[in-house]
Design brief:
- By secondary structure, the chain is α+β, with helices and mostly antiparallel strands.
- It has one domain: Small Protein B, Chain: A (Beta Barrel), CATH 2.40.280.10.
- Helices cover about 40% and strands about 35% of the residues.
- The chain has helices spanning about 1-10, 20-25, 40-45, 95-105, 135-159, and strands at about 15, 25-35, 50, 55-60, 65, 70, 90, 110-120, 120-130.
């Protein structure tokens, strides 16, 4: 019965997304990877207290590192709390790391975290291989979203 409660709790944890990334970048590929956390960071993530707006990932000395991810301190951890912004190691297989390295060697591409979520009780990060958008591309994306919203509004009125 205890295992059932654990899965139930894991499903209640929020998915922390990065809406800005979808506005600022074209996402060409996605990858799910694990993240190395300390206990107070896990508790804070379960309450949805993190920000990905300034975060990015980089391959450094054969490891994938997440930079700039802000996970707020957990109030009840007191003495054993974590630093809000620190570099966190991401867990990927060697072949995936080589593929990511090859994709990010191209000019203008980077690794951006799209979301942090829990899967089977384990914290995961969804990384996207991203290429920056130009200003006219951003306007086109906004225009397309508005057209879709208007279309849904018209369709809901008909029903």
């Amino acid at each position: 019965m205890a295992g059932h409660d654990k899965n139930k709790r894991a499903n209640l944890a929020p998915r922390i997304g990065n809406k800005r990334a979808l506005h600022e970048y074209f996402i060409t590929a996605k990858l799910e990877c694990g993240i190395v956390l300390v206990g107070s960071e896990v508790k804070s993530l379960r309450y949805g207290r993190a920000h990905l707006q300034e975060a990015f990932a980089r391959i450094e000395s054969g490891e994938l590192i997440l930079h700039g991810c802000h996970i707020e301190p957990y109030d009840q951890a007191s003495l054993y709390n974590h630093l809000p912004i620190r570099d966190r190691k991401l867990l990927v297989h060697k072949r995936e790391l080589k593929r990511l390295d090859a994709e990010t060697q191209q000019r203008g591409t980077t690794l951006i975290p799209l979301a942090i979520y829990f899967k089977d009780g384990i914290a995961k990060v969804e990384l996207g291989v991203a290429r920056g958008k130009q200003e006219h591309d951003k306007r086109e994306t906004i225009r397309k979203k508005e057209q879709d919203r208007e279309m849904r509004r018209i369709m809901s009125r008909r029903q």
